[in-house]
From TrEMBL:
<protein>
    <recommendedName>
        <fullName>General stress protein 17M-like domain-containing protein</fullName>
    </recommendedName>
</protein>
<feature type="transmembrane region" description="Helical">
    <location>
        <begin position="75"/>
        <end position="97"/>
    </location>
</feature>
<feature type="transmembrane region" description="Helical">
    <location>
        <begin position="103"/>
        <end position="130"/>
    </location>
</feature>
<keyword id="KW-0472">Membrane</keyword>
<dbReference type="Pfam" id="PF11181">
    <property type="entry name" value="YflT"/>
</dbReference>
<feature type="domain" description="General stress protein 17M-like">
    <location>
        <begin position="27"/>
        <end position="100"/>
    </location>
</feature>
<keyword id="KW-1133">Transmembrane helix</keyword>
<feature type="region of interest" description="Disordered">
    <location>
        <begin position="1"/>
        <end position="23"/>
    </location>
</feature>
<dbReference type="InterPro" id="IPR025889">
    <property type="entry name" value="GSP17M-like_dom"/>
</dbReference>
<keyword id="KW-0812">Transmembrane</keyword>
Amino acid sequence: MTAPFTGRPGTQPGLPNLPEPPSGWPVGSYAKYEEAQRAVDHLADNEFPVADVTIVGVDLMLVERVIGRLTWGRVIATGAASGAWLGLFVGLVLSLLSPAGGIGGLGAILTGLVIGIVFGIVSGAITYGASRGRRDFTSQSQIVAGRYDVLCQPRNAEKARDMLGKLAMGTDG
């Protein structure tokens, strides 16, 4: 016979770590993550039990910032550079494992480097060529929130709200 479920999801061995919504009462809302982080840091600096606090990003969105144009030259250079690092690493490992040492070790490093560069160029060219010009730019993606709410467990929410209110008015430390 199995025991009834007792506790939160993911807290017992063998159970998956399921997502669960945050709990607590709102004690502050901020436009930027840094502001919410500053608020929680203020609470921590004033001996508040911050284990009761959660920062929640609300209205999540994926932001993709375009960095630059992608050309064949850039693809080949980037592929060569990343392949060189991989090849150098493999060559160094092989040189350490080489019984000959000395010149044999240097040969393993150079061979790994050359093969890595070739592999990097070929794999980069194949990937870029397969896109057929549909994505001729590089970018960075990140998930950001429209606002950041600070929640606190009910037992300390009023105290947190008072402390953050004083911080906002500039009357507390």
